[in-house]
Amino acid sequence: MKKFLIQVLAVIVGISLLTGVFIFGMFIIGAISESTSKITVKENSVLEITLKQPVMESPSEKSVSVFSFNQGTSVYLRNILDLIKHAKTDDKIKGISLKIEDVNGGYAQISEIRQALQDFKQSKKFVYAYSNNSSQKTYYLSSVADSLFLNLNAMTEFAGMSMEVMFLKNFGDKYGISFDVIRHGKYKSAVEPYLQDHFSDENRQQLKELGDNIWSKISSDISQSRKLSINDINIAADSLYGFVAEYAVKQKLADKLVTESQYYNIIKKKLGVTEDKKFNKISLTQYSEATDLKSRAKDKIAVLYASGEIYSGKGNDDVYSQTIIKQIKEIKDDDHIKAVVLRVNSPGGDGNASAEILYELAELKKEKPLIVSFSDYAASGGYYIAMAADKIYAQENTITGSIGVFGILPNVKKLSNNLGINFDHVATNANSLYYSPFEGASDGMKTVLTKDIEIFYKKFVGVVMNNRKKTFEQVDALGGGRVWSGKQALQNGLVDAIGTFGDAIAFAAQKAKLKEYQVIDYPKEKPSFERFMEMFFPKNDDDDTQVKATENLLKKELGAENYRLYQKVKNIQQQKGILYLMPFDIEFK
Questions:
Q1: Residue 134 burial by CB count (10 A; 0-12/13-18/19+): exposed, middle or buried?
Q2: What is the torsional sign of CA 364, 368, 371, 376?
């Protein structure tokens, strides 16, 4: 028996070693092939943009997988914008082809890409678009093209803005789960799904106004590109004309119905290539590999990304206070970094973590200019950490504001009793058991938490007062947890300008009096070999590369929507105490 077990163990070890050698060998082969196959841009080329991968803001969002031996060059939002800008003056690039099915990104991100394409068209080079089926976000982006072609049976989702929220109160009542909630502000509606079964009037009002503002921007852009009136745009959306390809063309949402081969023949004709020949086509990733956009200037502008919910502690996904503070201090100590752009794409989160991050950013600002650029979200804690800025840029369809505070304490006493589980306790003082998920919060705890919420809210408003040069009453009138579009935020004085990511970087350079500079990202992207090795040999206990690899696998299997739900459940234990968090996960469709 002992001999048998030794043999089994030897076989297991052998298989493990062989698998390890195989994976390592495949990775090395991939790395070698990547380094030896240098991509070049050929004459008379077309840059084809598909956006099959999610539009990422920073390196922290990059997938890590054991099975991704050669992931190629990552293309982030700023890279996409820079590459389109470069293609404008690249004599080898004659035009851009948009072949996009579904954009995995927010409307503010799409708007930035759209503006870059609009600027590209000033070169008199062509922009064509082709779609089999497209989401409304895809159509919004594709509509910038000179000519928009659809497959003969294409369906285009074009219906205006909508938002649906799941309310859990009746579910909680049925199964015995309730929540003790303390909030400040009638618009602080993040907790509504736990307290009622429908929108409050205040929340319905703010979301309707928010949707109207974002739709106004989208319909206005499409109107200008497609040369249609706003009324025609709304009639097309109300009538769902986009869902029938023939109607889409008849109503001038698109130009012509063609097959993919016919679309490519149209491009060939534009390039002067005969139909029996291939034309030179290069993807964004390939163009990134073939194009050296990096400046060699000594002076630098740092772009610091704050993407995701805000938590205390260390981590790579989302915004973890200790991790981003370490990066802030590195930037502060680097004498070559002359200015900083904080790129915010966050709905907020932990109140204490937000306060810690803001303090360090304020200390950084004493040394170097700090410019803030808002992406899709910069709300609650995401807005709060921007209060150290010299200047704040937002997109018109950025979701921002949500100046408010709430605390939430779950109570499963009824559920446990229904399951035949009871709890009892003894205590030395009136509030020794100030909170238990099986007993709820004591009256004393509710009183203290209510006072704490008010103090936190006044601190939040105080920080905004000082940065935005407003009175308490003015900020309070804009606060209460209410969310605003970037356009509304500018009108209300919550941001300084409507502008792109590039505008923020350009202003940072102007503020630092820089003519030549290079832009560096924080967090920095690790080399692919280093990321691969850390999956098997983490550097320390704080390195969560293995966890990230597992979660990326889950993301692939569950899909984006289900993975977000998984993240909410996983992180709920970290959302304790007082939160600066935006109402709901707002995603207009």
A1: buried
A2: negative
pLDDT tens string 367-408:
999 999 999 999 999 999 999 999 999 999 999 998 988 777
Compute how many other C-beta atoms are within 10 angstroms of the C-beta atom of residue 128.
22
Q: What is the pLDDT of residues 277-329, one digit of tens each?
A: 999 999 999 999 999 888 889 999 999 999 999 999 998 888 999 999 999 99
Closest CA to 386 of 398, 374, 402: 374
Q: Which residues pair with 314 in a beta bridge?
A: none
Same domain, 279 and 338: no
Answer yes or no: are the C-beta atoms of 499 and 405 closer than 8 Å.
Answer: no
End-of-domain residue from the set 525, 541, 565: 525
In a domain, 175, yes or no: no
Asked whether residue 491 is domain-assigned, the answer is yes
502 contact partners, CB below 8 Å, separation of at least 6: 81, 85
Q: Which residues of 364-379 are buried (b: 16+ CB within 10 A; e: fewer)?
A: bbeebbbbbbbbbbbb
The total number of structural domains in the chain stands at 2
- pLDDT, one tens digit per residue, over 467-488 is 999 999 999 999 888 899 999 9
